[in-house]
Amino acid sequence: MEKMEQIFTFIDHKAEEIEKSGKSTYLEAVLATLRGILDGDYPFPVEVATKEEVRKAIQLAILKGMRESSQPNHQMTPDSLGLLIAFIIEQLFEEKLEKGMISILDPALGTGNLMFTIMNKLDGKILATGVEVDELLIQLAGEIAELIEQPIELYHQDALRPLLVEPVDLVVCDLPVGYYPNNEVAKDYELRAQNEMSYAHHLYIEQSLRYIKEGGYLIFLIPATLFESEQAEKLHQFLKKHAWIQAVMQLPETMFKSKQHEKSIFILQKKCDQLRPPKEVLLAKVPKLSNKQALSLFFEKIKTWKENNLNNPR
């Protein structure tokens, strides 16, 4: 049995034991199990494991719990997208990563799978901050961070309220899609709706631009229909005012269970007086991630686009 399977099997069995006591859901039992490992109550099931083996094993247990949960916010960004975004980050910040670290904020962290996939890929190069309103999810993120030894600053709060976060180099976020229920908070946003509830995913984009450095990048996973809604024109005008659209990458339809769940990668750069806008917006379709040859050509396309478009000083 591979180490990842051994770790998952151990967590799964312990969580099922705790769940059967009737006091916890399976996800809560996973949290209790992770805490038990960290506190030394349970021996770790393998002597040596990589950060990725540990992350993937915990991810499997959390995915099992999320399938049993009816909460719509209990969803996880797939590893494949995390690795793809990590490659994009390497391209956007190639020079900076060679010299040191970059700061990243995820304002809708969840259990942190997207952030931790990136951190493991760019190990030792990320100063990470995560914000999450769901108490169970952020507690899971905190225990995972300790177990894979990835430092991250965590804030348990509504990310659309003011944050105690210094401006960062990069925002990454799998945008929560839907309506934002707090009209009082939404009043402080340019992208608020006038006579109805505001779109949370629009507000997250605006909030992210508040906490990004000038010239910094934002990588969002967006609904493929982002610019087709009745509030799309307002979003378009807002972005034109505050940011440069760098790229829109359509993800393979096969990654999603239905057309309405399809997503794209959306890359913005906060406007900066010292830089020029891109000569060309990268519009691309991501090939099936199992097609290595097509994926290799896609990566080359991104590299070529980067060399011709990014960080052109005025």
TrEMBL record:
Keywords: Methyltransferase, Transferase
Keyword 4Fe-4S annotated: no
Signal peptide start and end residues: none
Protein's UniProt name: Class I SAM-dependent methyltransferase
Family annotation (Pfam families): N6_Mtase (PF02384)
GO MF terms, alphabetically ordered: DNA binding; N-methyltransferase activity
SUPFAM superfamilies (alphabetical): S-adenosyl-L-methionine-dependent methyltransferases
Species in which this protein is naturally found: Ureibacillus thermophilus
Keyword Transferase assigned: yes
